[in-house]
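Example record used in the benchmark description.
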Amino acid sequence: MSRTGSNTVLLTGAAGSIGTVLAHELPAYGHRLRLLDSKPIDADDTVLADLTNDAGSAALDAAMDGLESVVHLAAIPTEAPFADILRVNIDGTYRVFDAARRAGVRRIVYASSNHAVGFTPRAPMVGVDVPPRPDTYYGLSKVFGEALGRLYADRYGLEVACLRIGSFAERPTSHRHLSTWLSHGDAVRLLHAGLSTPDLTYAVVYGISANTRAWWDLAPGHRLGYHPVDDAETYAAQIVAEHGQPDLGARTEAFLGGEYTDQRYDTPR
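Model output (structure tokens):
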């Protein structure tokens, strides 16, 4: 089914770092937005709801009425105790997908993460077809979301795009960011592609800018209609001057997940 970008889109997690940028910039691409978060938002079409409880689920059902598309960003955006990840990132994501199914929503664009494959060894042009190797409970929750999207695409016919977002920031600030950076502008272009690409069934793509030192294959994103324009290499000389050269023998340099693979993220015994 073709998308023109003219339908109203429910944006969950609209008060978060990515959501705030999208809420401001996506309307320029022709998308009307309904903004949902557990925090109040100063905008015209908003829904105040906590997706982890029954009252929030009822508000979510009402918010989805008559919509065709959902962008699901709402989540704990970093590592946290498993009970919290389970409640917010896993059960909350299930509630969004199932509410979309019940409401007849046609498309979900899901904010996954590179940490779904964080324990994959670094290599040139890693594809989206590598096995899941989450580096944290957070990464595990993103593996769940991708698998849930696959189930709902196959069983219920939802159109699902899973975006393995890299390092979202206004500008890169570390050696790792030279490979993993996703600029604000490219994030908007990525989400627009997920919402507007025609004939989507199910797709997983990496969400990074057009970085010269990229580890991840952007070809699946190109097929989705995502064509990033920013490159972290613009900042490379400044980053090297500030931080020196990285220790290539460090564990955090060996895997795609970077610092999330460090032993300080181990669960205490």
